[in-house]
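Incident review: delayed structure delivery

Summary: a single-chain prediction request sat in the queue longer than the usual turnaround. Root cause was a stuck worker, restarted by the on-call engineer. No data loss occurred. The affected request and its eventual output are reproduced below so the record is complete for anyone auditing the incident later.

Affected input:
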Amino acid sequence: MVVGMWLVLLAAVLGYGAFRFLSGYPPPPIRCAALAPREYATIAAAALASYPRGGAIEPSGIDAGIPAHVDRFVAAQQPSTRLLMRLLFVLVEHATLLFPAPGAGGMRRFSALDEAQQVAYLTGWQRSRLLPRRLVFVSLRAILTMGYFGDPAVLRALGIAPRAFATPVCEADLLWPRVGQPRSTIRHRPEDVTPRSMPEPLGYDGPLHADYAAAATSQERA
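Output delivered after worker restart:
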């Protein structure tokens, strides 16, 4: 009798765990190379909680394409590093069972919390007296920050997007090819050397590099 009750309890726990871990995640709105739907949901929620719409910088974490960046970043890692990153996402998503967010339903999955609860939940990790919790937050925030400040729209809003300028040709360009290329690829001639002159400052209103102009933003988020 007792054994049967324990088996029923174990089955219930396993069933709840499977339901919580796997079900209820919609397909991502973009095609992902590495992130599963549950991982995409975690990253999207964290991105929006960290960089909300109407924040100090206009593009939100979603508008800046953080989930797409994280997907590419995870896909580029070695298998061992990729596993650690996936475990990080699982911990953030389901640690509400141990550290619930304030308010009703605070033990729901992180991605299922409302926006205010998500912010409070992440703040709890950031300000925790437990060093491991703070380290988890720092790790997650580092991944999100790389994606956010790699977005052209964010760099334009901050005024630090790279400017477009013509690269001068110097004498060394006549002697050395590009890194890893043979000398036969040297395409410059003596008459191509840029005359020496006082360079003009780029200023704050010059044209942006093509990769950071407004037209590049949609490509970055794709």
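Verification: The chain has two domains: 2-150, 171-221.
Action items: add queue-age alerting; document worker restart procedure.
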